[in-house]
Write a structure and sequence with these properties.
Length: about 475
């Protein structure tokens, strides 16, 4: 019995190590199998993620290329284009603008240049300024519509003016990528300031060349096509046809097309913090009885009954012009953000040069006498300005503008104006500005002006252009 018990115990201890080895081997096999399964799953998901990343990169590349060739609106080097909402609910916005003005001179004329109503310096004291009502929406997948009406102080109270009312094609219209057609009345592409509403200007008034050559802005009725080329840097070309009612033209009759435009501008970035743009523009057309006074064909002589001195000065100052008019313009703009963030600090440098060439007849009515002189010549003007945002809410700026009296006018003085301003913006929707102007428009005509202005935006507010 003892021998049998000894044999069983001996056999148990002999088998025990082999049993442990078998169990250990089975456990290792399971571990290896589990590791292999995990590795296979990891490889499968890595391959799937890689394919998805490649697909995403392709989609981003296509989107980036489309944006570059069409609008490039996210780059400060290029003019921003609106992102149109495709639903049928219109975007509605209101711009409230008011001011207080004080002038040292009672004279409101510039010898040698008949001023239109919009080109005048404005009313003294407290005034409504200009309040804009904006409505815009996508009509459907092919057209976008916009209208801007302005409420302004007039001689007979508050007047309503239609500044813009146009229809513009969308990418779904079928034009080549980057091409756009605009039809109606608009602030057309001509120089830098012209296609901007005055409330987005850096100063409370426009420089002398815009006042005397364009009655503040050219917004005739017509059509324009523009094309942003599919290049690495910004190139835009285009042109338009117009009735010729607005200054620098006037007197369009019937359905005639009396003026046209052409333009080309280029731009790009300099490093990461700065951008530039330069452009050349032409307006060419016929004027019929162009004088000062109203806009869009409502010309007024505005001449007093006082006797005028002999010579050609009165012809240019108060006469009415009929003939061919060409206006050439060059503009340059440079933007620099020292910190890389334009919201914190920004320097804006900007300038434009104008050359008006005319050939025709000046007519002046003095009582029962009519004087006519055929004169060929032109006049020039320019301005340069700089604005520095030294903190997110504060800016300061200075501007110099000058115009050169028309050839053969007999006027020896070339009018000029100096402006300095400071403004505070609590947000992108509100701004208060204080400005001082010193104008020397004639040998004996000097005007010192103080302008206090507020600009408030309510509702939809389009991004400001470059």
């Amino acid at each position: 019995m003892n021998i049998l018990r000894f044999a069983v115990i001996t056999a148990f201890f002999a088998v025990l190590p082999f049993s442990h080895i078998s169990a250990s081997a089975a456990s290792d096999q399971e571990i290896e199998a589990l590791k292999k399964e995990i590795q296979d799953m990891r490889s499968e998901y890595e391959n799937r993620i890689l394919k998805m990343e490649e697909k995403l990169a392709g989609m981003e590349s296509e989107a980036s290329q489309a944006e570059t060739t069409y609008s490039k609106s996210k780059d400060r080097a290029y003019p921003s284009r609106a992102i149109y909402n495709r639903n049928l609910n219109p975007s509605i916005g209101v711009i409230l603008g008011g001011r207080f003005a004080a002038f040292s001179s009672d004279e409101d004329e510039i010898p040698g240049f008949p001023l239109g109503h919009e080109g005048e310096r404005g009313a003294e004291g407290i005034s409504l300024g200009e309040t804009e009502l904006n409505f815009s929406t996508s009509v459907d997948d092919k057209f976008y519509a916009h209208i801007t009406t302005a409420l302004v102080d007039g001689e007979d109270g508050v007047e309503v003016e239609v500044e813009e009312a146009y229809v513009e094609t969308l990418p779904g219209f079928g034009l080549p990528t980057g091409a756009t057609i605009r039809m109606g009345r608009a602030f057309w592409t001509m120089g830098y300031l012209n296609e901007h509403h005055s409330h987005s200007d850096d100063f409370a008034d426009r420089p002398l060349p815009y006042r005397v050559f364009l009655n503040k802005a050219f917004n005739d009725t017509g059509a324009q096509i523009s094309y942003v080329l599919p290049t690495e840097f910004y190139i835009e070309a285009g042109g338009g046809i117009f009735r010729g009612d607005d200054l620098p033209f006037a007197g369009a009759e019937g359905s005639d097309i009396n003026s046209f435009s052409a333009f080309l501008r280029v731009g790009g970035d300099i490093g990461r913090n700065s951008a530039w743009r330069i452009g050349g523009y032409l307006l060419d057309g016929e004027a019929s009885g162009r004088g000062g006074g109203g806009e869009h064909g409502d010309e007024e002589n505005g001449e007093s009954e006082e006797e005028m001195e002999e010579g050609f000065e009165e012809l240019f100052t108060a006469g009415m012009f009929t003939g061919d008019t060409r206006l050439y313009t060059l503009d340059l703009r440079y933007v620099w953000a020292p910190t890389g963030n334009a919201r914190d600090k920004e320097l804006l440098l900007q300038g434009e040069y104008f050359w008006r060439d005319e050939e025709g007849v000046y007519t002046l009515v003095e009582g029962d006498e009519v004087r006519e002189e055929r004169l060929d010549g032109g006049s020039q003007g320019w301005y340069a300005q700089g604005v520095f945002k030294f903190s997110p809410k504060w800016r300061i700026g200075a501007r110099y503008s000058q115009i050169y009296s028309p050839e053969d006018s007999g006027i020896e003085h070339d009018p000029y104006a100096v402006a300095v301003m400071g403004d505070w913006s609590n947000s992108e929707f509100s701004r208060i500005r204080l400005q001082y102007n010193h104008e020397k428009v004639g040998e004996d005509l000097t005007d010192n002006q103080i302008l206090l202005q507020y600009i408030m935006g309510i509702g939809a507010h389009a991004a400001h252009k470059f």
